[in-house]
Amino acid sequence: MSGRSNARKQPKVKEKVIIDENNPMLRAFRAYSLELDAKHDRYERIVKLSRDITIEAKRIIFLLHSIDIRKGNKEKVLEEAQQRLEKVIKVNFKAVAQEMQNLDPYQYRGAYAPGLQEFIEAYSFMEYMRYADDKSTSLDNEASMSDWQQLQEKMQYIEAEANDEIAAEMKEHKFSFHVEPSEYILGISDLSGELMRRCINSLGSGETDTCLLICKVLQHLYKGYVGLSIPRCRELSRKIHTMRQSVLKAEDVCYNVKVRGGEAAKWGLESEKPNVDIDEGFF
């Protein structure tokens, strides 16, 4: 019995596994590991850059909302907003473009899309505020708002790099940030929320003509978006639903203006919420 108990107590000796470092399968998987780690690190860096773009764009939108005809600060605010937006293009989007050089931008679309949409919202809002009081500017004037191709042209970058053969000779290296058209459409759809806020703020400051103009712009945008159909874009229906809510709120403001006239600012919005559950047939 003692012999059996001693045999059971003896630990089993594990066989040492010998790894062949030259195994083609092992070398391939280690290369895949390095490639995936590099991709994940690059993705996280782009996410951080996109957050910086989002934060700055939100600050610029807040700045644009401070425009007040009673203070006469429109030109000053627009100039500052323009300079800050140009800086975002030259610094932040350039850094994102450098990360994605010679790579498929669609692989990192989820990383930079939020920042791009917020920037497009801020840029288009700045352009709207610049042309808002221009009586010669109509709703169909394409020159009043940059399309995605015009933004793409702004995001072209050139860097100087040394030639391998002759170190003293420098050559230009060109690269760009890819502006996805569908992201541009989603960014413009967010503009409706800022226009709605501008409409409500204008009611409080007594700018009833501005309320009516913004309402027409929102109706014009909504009419165009209802007819859109973008494959593999799940966000579009949600954006259109949010846009419709903004249109209804702006129409509620204009209703107060038409019914109550100059006293609309004192009464404010109606206490009842607009019916936003009516199916428009685009879901």
From TrEMBL:
The keyword Metal-binding applies. Pfam families: Translin (PF01997). GO terms for cellular component: cytoplasm; nucleus. Keywords: Cytoplasm, Magnesium, Metal-binding, Nucleus. The keyword Cytoplasm applies. One of its GO terms (molecular function) is metal ion binding. PANTHER family: TRANSLIN AND TRANSLIN ASSOCIATED PROTEIN X (PTHR10741). Belongs to the translin family. This is Translin-associated protein X. It comes from Glossina pallidipes (Tsetse fly).
